[in-house]
Here is the input.
Amino acid sequence: MNNSKSIFSRYFAICSAVILISFCCLGTVLLLVSSRYFLDEKKSLMLKNARTLATYTKDDMMQHPDEWLHDVKGELKIYGISSNADYVLCSDDGYVIASTGSDINYIDSSQLSAFSQQGNYVYGTLGGVMSEMSHIMGVRFSANGPDYVMLSYSTKSAQDNYTKNIMQIFIASAVMVMIIVLFLVYFAVLKLTSPIKEVAEISKKIGKGDFSVTLPDYSTKEFRQLSNAFNEMAANLKSYDTMRNSFLANVSHELRTPMTSIGGFVDGLLDGTIPKSQEKKYLRIISSEVARLTRLVKSMLNLAKIEAGELEPNKTSFSVVEPIVDTLVTFEPRIEEKEIEIRGLDIDRTEMYADLDLIHQVMYNLIENAIKFVDKGGYIEFRFAKDNAGTSVSIRNSGEGLAEEELPLVFDRFYKVDKSRGIHAQGLGLGLNIVRSIIEIHGGQIMVKSVKDVFTEFTFTVPDPQEDSEPDEE
Here is the structure.
């Protein structure tokens, strides 16, 4: 069973969870802050009103000793309504004189001892007089001799109702905001993840071999970078696929041609079609075609080893002219056919420190390339140099040369110059790529320069062996 979730559902769930947690945290903070604020404001107001009523009662007792109680009761009701609290006036011995709340007739004097003239706060029921826990402010004052206490109180349920109303308003607002935010998040995440779906769809098309598809240029920086990288990858795959198809076609042609020749000549030898006097001639042709197949397979195997990092050069010192001469002997018939002049081999012995077999293949590929493109009656010139970089070999051939735009491409795998021309279209486009790979595993470099309709020249350098910088101690 596939339990995987889409990126859209994950992002939407994460965003929704973050928003929900944020609202819960905000609601908790709001609850605590509003409850504290309500209590502080309530206590401040009750203390202020208790002091004001105590002063008013004291003055009224002094000025109207016969009518003060009626006036005070009326004032207590006004303050009770305006402040949403209850007020009690009682004597120092606990007898209640006036009250705006439930019927309270007596308060134990020991409970009243907690209140002073400055005013004090008590949380409780004053010994069970009040029906529930209350916030109580009390101010003690003296008038006409006796002491009195003016109490102002608000039940805890009033605070709870205030907090409940605040939370109801917050929850209603939060639900509305949550719906709007989730609606916006839904479309934002949908827009954010749509490029990923597009990449997945185009990847499927590329997987099926359609390399013409591309991603659009997105407005988001990260997706724009992804789009550019993806389009570049698709272009490279398209180019590689074109070269691969060309390579397969060339391999088929290169294998089919010698194998057809070999098969035809062998059949001719077996059934007697080829006369005895011509057998050696056709056997030489068969041998040449077998050598051609051997070189083809060897090139492909060497390339595979180089890519896998399995080809380690077995370096020795040898005369750099040796592999050149051996290769020229191999191509002697073609050199004579095109009347090519060979220059630059009349030099003193020049040593190179490298793998002889691999350098032989380098020389073979470069000389074969030079013979292929040299003009009839032209020349192939060799030059050698030694410097701090190592031993350098240059192979120049006269002829049509290379166009400037072709120079960066000649070492690419499967790349073939002038595909429209028959003789130049032979080969796999692997020779120069193998040459560069062999030179690179020797730690060297190779470059090409060309002047159109004049010459083409390949120069490679192989480092000399490292000598000890410090003399041996005796």
